[in-house]
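pinging the channel bc i need a second pair of eyes. not urgent but kinda urgent?? the chain im working w is below, pasted from the shared doc
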Amino acid sequence: MNEQNRIRMVDLVRQLHPIRERLERAAMDVIHSGHFLFGDQNDSFESAFKQWLGIDYAVTCSSGTDALTLALGALGISVGDKVITVPNTAFATACAITRSGAAPVFVDIDSETWLLDYEHAKEAVDNNTKAIIPVHLYGYVCDIVQLKKHNTKDMFIVEDCAQAHGAKLNGKKAGTLGDLGAFSFYPSKNLCALGDAGIVVTNDKAYEDRMRQLRFYGQKSRDHHIEIGMNSRMDEIQAAFLRVELEIIDQWVTRRREIAEQYCENLDPDAFKRPVPLKDSDPSYHLYVIAVEDRDAFRRVLESDGIDTGIHYPVPIHLQPAYSSLGYARGDFPNAEALADRIVSLPVGPHLDDSEVERVLNSCRRYARAGGD
């Protein structure tokens, strides 16, 4: 297979080509300004992003992990507290909880939505539980409405929106449904920076003020530090890039939905299982993930046809050596563990044209016709 014809999971050269000149001008504007941190570009992007979301406040930072960490810090989450989340997410979700000083508490996922199971979450709550992080995994939105209904302990809700730029529930965008929403702009995300970057959003002015303080060493005013914070600043070039891309993100998300619709309509449901979106939700399809009985065989077929695939994620967090001290074991979260052994991510993104989507479908059909061999 000619590598030039390979279908890739992410191809930023192709994706960004239509706006390359605008991105180059944005970068040069920053260079010529001589102002590389906390300048007009950050202010402009924060303003544009909160307007796009429909929320009052936005605070930029240096990564999606830091976005979650800042959100938890703004809520006063610290040592002795517990935060509930799922084990089938990126490691960063749990890492942010640990960095806050709290302990992550994992609960199993729903077998149909592949998202946090609210009944399990309810059972996991105790007097030390202060917050819950529902993960809008793959761009599918968690049912925050039901979560609030189950939230009898008035726990804080921090949405992990790292994969959910543009996803909606009941017409409201992910990130506007809980107390705070944390986004990543890692280069593979629906809205991508030149490197690492993130943002936290909220409707609470007090949370915004605390996060601005925390992200700059706990500094209230120059050289006056009220608390021990962190260094989590988005540089001006990242903000300038993101501001340009924000103008076309809706086009990118629409293209992801078009491709996902083709997959949904044409993949054999007996051979390829997929998560069921919530009623009245509109996923943004950061990833298109299916479950296959013989994952290795399936991936070999697509590889032979020059098609990249991925696995998000092969090892649930509760089984990672870094969290062995929590005492979890295989079998604790059967739904998450079963999926981890079967899930495969197919290429989905604005870099793909219709002929490439059809190539992916044809390769999947070839595998299904062979009975999964």
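so The chain has a mean pLDDT of 96. and The radius of gyration is 21 Å. — does that match what u expected or am i reading it wrong
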